[in-house]
């Protein structure tokens, strides 16, 4: 992860789009590596979405287990700067479905 992203999360200026996209993609790839599977879809628009957590595969329509948040929140969660509970309570993270909260047990990713 880049120093520019760390500085942004600490209150500095937002990095360029390419840097943000790379940081989100790298962290989502690490999540999939840590919890391979297709039970929960994690969405960080506009930069990426992955399926993770072992269990039944979702194949049609809207997935039953979805986590969605913005890039800043996701990167803060993945680095342990923000907790899952704080993100949910602040309304910057949504988790639907009975298995979606399992992603919280995988964070931080570092």
Characterise the protein shown here:
- Helices cover 37% and strands 16% of the residues.
- It is of the alpha+beta class.
- The protein has a single domain, classed as 2-Layer Sandwich (Nonspecific Lipid-transfer Protein, Chain A), CATH 3.30.1050.40.
- Strands 2-1-3-4 form a 4-stranded mixed sheet.
- Strand 1 (40-44) and strand 2 (48-52) form a beta hairpin.
- Helix 2 packs across helix 3.
- The N and C termini lie close together (10 Å).
- The model has no long low-confidence stretch (mean pLDDT 94).
Properties at a glance:
4 helices, single chain, alpha+beta, four-stranded mixed β-sheet
User: What is the CATH topology?
Assistant: Nonspecific Lipid-transfer Protein, Chain A
Across the major sheet, the strand order is 2-1-3-4
Structural class: alpha+beta
- Low-pLDDT stretches: none
Question: What would the principal axes of the Cα set say about the shape?
Answer: globular
Beta-strand proportion: 15-25%
Distance between the termini: 10 Å
